[in-house]
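no rush on this but wanted to send it before i forget. theres a chain ive been looking at and ive put its sequence and its fold in token form underneath. i want to understand how the tokens follow from the sequence so walk me through it. thanks a lot i owe you, the record is right below:
>
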Amino acid sequence: MAHPSEPDSFAHLRVLLRSLPEKPGIYKHLDAQGIILYIGKAKNLKNRVTSYFRGKHENVRLQNMVMQVHTIEIMVTESEYEALLLENTLIKKEQPKYNISLKDGKSYPWIVIKKEPFPRVFPTFHFKPKDGEYFGPYVSGKGMYAVLDLIAQLYPLRSCSLALTPENIHAGKFKVCLEYHLKNCLGPCVGSQSERDYQSTIESIRHLLKGNLSQAKNRLAQQMDQHALHMEFEAAQACKDRLGLLEKYQAKSTVVNPKNLYEADVYSIVSDAEFAYINGLVLREGAVVRGHTLEWKKKLDESDRELLASGLAELRRLFDSTSKEIFVSIPLGMDIPGVHVFVPQRGDKMKLIALSLRNAQACRIEKLKNMSIVDPERHVLRLMKQMQSDLRLSEEPRHFECFDNSNFQGSYPVSACVVFKNGKPAKKEYRHFNVKTVEGANDFATMEEVITRRYSRMLAENHPLPQLILVDGGKGQLSSAVSALEKLGLRGQIAVIGIAKKLEELFYPNDPDPLYLDKRSETLKIVQRARDEAHRFGLTHHRNRRSKGAIVSVLEEIPGIGPASTDALLTTFHSVAGITAATLEELAKVVGQQKAKAVKNFLKK
């Protein structure tokens, strides 16, 4: 066990670690003042807690936290999932400094069935489980009000806030209101509707809100048949109309596959260096009836598996879900008693995972857009951390440069260097290179020459060096760049990566296997933009140089016109078109009367 200073003062910790049980549970790291630093869950308490005190941690925040640990408290549970639930509860209550925290940016609406006689059903933004039964959260108010409108059309309910106790009703304290006369309420306030009948309606609403539409439909069908049997045709028609509304509502739901009526939850995760976004979907009778995305702020470089497990527990609580089947985007690494958890690989279930991932990604994109507008510095810091992590760099690539070579059948070889600062192009610092020492089409030698020229000059002029060099090409171009840096004594001071165009493979020195980034990742998009920008900048210069070469070759065909006269004419008139449009007198001022006549006569032909 490695500790900073005064190892004897940690003797009690050493004893405690040896005595930890090899059972699932939660643990608390506390400092010398008894303040909780971190709460975690474990499948095996002894192995997990001991791992914090073995060697040095790469994560600085984790190392700082371990340095402050003075004592550890544990609580054993029956299973790892129970530990996870307890961990979530304690984190919310204690808010430890080093635990992930829920950042839910905005309040989402809920539908509540109030805990009271003759319960009301209404929308709210305040989640207070003690006050009633909550359904949601709903991602948009529009979706929530669509459900409330359906309930209003299907079921007559009271909307008043009267205290409808049996004593008050029997005492005749209330009178019916306009809602009663509009047939939106059956008048429980005056005893016109029994509490048993009202609770039956509430039970139907409860099933509807949970997505169990078949039960609500069956109840309406039975009522319709009963009314028809007693020749109550108006009431039977009302039930039929309501049944139609339910079927129409079900048709508008996101139906997965009507043949496979899944009763399941779906959970996925999308994360970056700073945040994780966990999306959950609830399926009932083959349709997605609820969905929500949580945002977790990372504190100790937690893995996606850990974050998904925490998010899943939180969302199951929010949804009040008891689904016996769960689909996840990555292996959970944990059993949930009585629940089948698995990662779909194909078919409709895989499509559900894709739908969940799209929702998580949409939440992340919205967050990043807001961050870049409201807090650009924080956005840059997050982006640089993400690039450092994705590209396996030892430092943030605040300044990186990308090189691309161009030639035409071995002629006019040029190279371009584009510069990016904080993830954005610094166009004033772009540079062109006309290759001097390489004959023919030799990309490897060209890359070695321009890398040598670029950084030998930066060293000579004391300019700050970049943290990263990107070279457009595979292993050959990468080796040439590394060779140039070795000659300059810069090997190891600047990271070098090669990017191959076909499969967007990233190559590293002395590593035969390429790195593949997620096609949707910000890091890959920035790398691609730098590569494309270098290609565009180099190609423009190459075309200009070829054009100028063609002009020179045309002018040098004129008898009596040599390189000096050609340079003088191009300097003054810029192009063949400009020279052709010039008068004899204007040409004579540049190259003399005799050469001017020769130029005029040649260009006329």
Summary: Residues 1-9, 546-552 have pLDDT under 50 and may be disordered. Residues 388-545 form a domain with the Nucleotidyltransferase; domain 5 fold (CATH 3.30.420.340).
